[in-house]
Amino acid sequence: MFKKLFRITATTIVLLALSGISQSAETPVASAIPFTVDANFPGGNIIVDKIKANGSQAGKGQSFIVHLRPDLRDTPKYWFFWNFQVKSAQGYKIKFVFKPAVVGSRGPAVSVDEGKTWRWLSDANSPADHFVYTFAKNESNVRFCLGMYYMQSHWDRFIADYKNRPGMNISVLCKSRKNRDVELARFGNPDAKFGILLTCRHHSCEMVPNYALEGIIHEVFSGSDDGKWLMANVDFIVVPFVDKDGVEDGDQGKNRRPHDHNRDYVDEIYPEVRAIKALITPLAENKQFAVIDMHCPGCRGNDEVTYFYEPYTQKLRVQLREFCQILQKKQASGTMNYKETNNLLVGQGANKPDGKHKPIRCRYFGETLPNVLFSATLEIAYANAMKRSSWSSEPKDASSKEGSVVDANSTRELGRNVARALREYLGR
Ligand SMILES: [Zn+2]
């Protein structure tokens, strides 16, 4: 009888998942399985295929196996983002099995405060296809995510301390397709000869760079010599969530149909991309711009490194290298591994000219601005920043403990060093 109930439960959950209807406390299945697994919150993303008891023991102390996969939505092929919550599982041990194998190298990011703060479950040797979690007595709602998910609520809490500071101007870049406000922060000196465009979340699931953005803003407003110089000499333009709807809805964003936000700089089907181009293009007539468009690389494997894509234009490559050598020096005592030689040269890996040589990506849009200093994509690893002496050298094993931890603090620290490096590079 008990087994039969479970079979019904699992089937029901599959049907609910496939139909897009969420499992809720009101459904009859809730009495058979004592906990719920769902994505019913902003930024949530999961498909639950099956839940079954592991062994015959019943009651508290019982263990379960949950089979899951990412909800791809309008991303037509493999991608790896997921973000879900488990409620009412206190006292149970649950094994979460993923197919495809999309658990990061430090296991899931875990939050017991509804996604406000996160910690890694594991060191850098987590298996890719599963993790196991034993829920403490007071853990009635635990979130698990591929990475330390960051969305508007995080930004709102962070920017509250800065929005009334002299030199800070918070406004709305545009409305998203779903009528959400797309945030714009402009700070420093609007009349300065240097402009810096910083963008995050052209691919909505790539959450790590938002912590770097916090670090950059923190340094600029810190009152340090570097901060004061940057405030006086740079016009900072920051868009923290380019694909705002994707961030709040918990989409993959990457490779979405018909193309994603970072492949839109010719067609301009997204209001955010249109607004960025309309804002920057006239400003760039009179300013020397540096553009840093921030992303995350693959979730594990040989690409789990923090690095820049080198620009296509030779002159800009030289300038980016100069900046990156300064950053390497500043970051030498930092937690996260970064070396200028990590950078991806043109022709290596995915650093190929855009489709049919159209300037479709943000970084290529930046390269075509008059007076541009450099324009590059910065990739920040999701969980574990490995060392790489050069792209062509033998890559380290993704499970290597030699990788350094990527979390909110180590990424904010990287951001502070990016700001310090910008000051030295621009003021040289
Ligand atoms: Zn990306």
Task: Write up what this structure looks like.
With 428 residues, this protein is of the alpha+beta class. The chain folds into two domains: 2-145, Sandwich (Immunoglobulin-like), CATH 2.60.40; 152-426, Zn peptidases (Aminopeptidase, 3-Layer(aba) Sandwich), CATH 3.40.630.10. Helix content is 25%, strand content 22%. The chain has nine helices and 18 strands. It has helices at residues 2-19, 152-159, 209-220, 225-233, 244-249, 271-283, 314-331, 362-367, 408-426, and strands at residues 36-38, 47-54, 63-69, 83-87, 93-98, 109-111, 119-120, 130-134, 141-145, 168-175, 181-188, 194-200, 234-239, 288-295, 307-308, 374-379, 384-385, 404-405. Helix 3 packs across helix 9 and helix 4 crosses helix 9. It starts with a helix and ends with a helix. Zinc ion is lined by residues 203, 206, 254, 295.
In short:
The chain has helices spanning 2-19, 152-159, 209-220, 225-233, 244-249, 271-283, 314-331, 362-367, 408-426; strands at 36-38, 47-54, 63-69, 83-87, 93-98, 109-111, 119-120, 130-134, 141-145, 168-175, 181-188, 194-200, 234-239, 288-295, 307-308, 374-379, 384-385, 404-405. The chain has 428 residues and is an alpha+beta fold.
What descriptors fit this protein?
9 helices, alpha+beta, 22% strand, globular, 18 strands, disordered N terminus, single chain, Immunoglobulin-like, 428 residues, 2 domains, binds zinc ion, 5-stranded antiparallel β-sheet, Aminopeptidase, 7-stranded mixed β-sheet
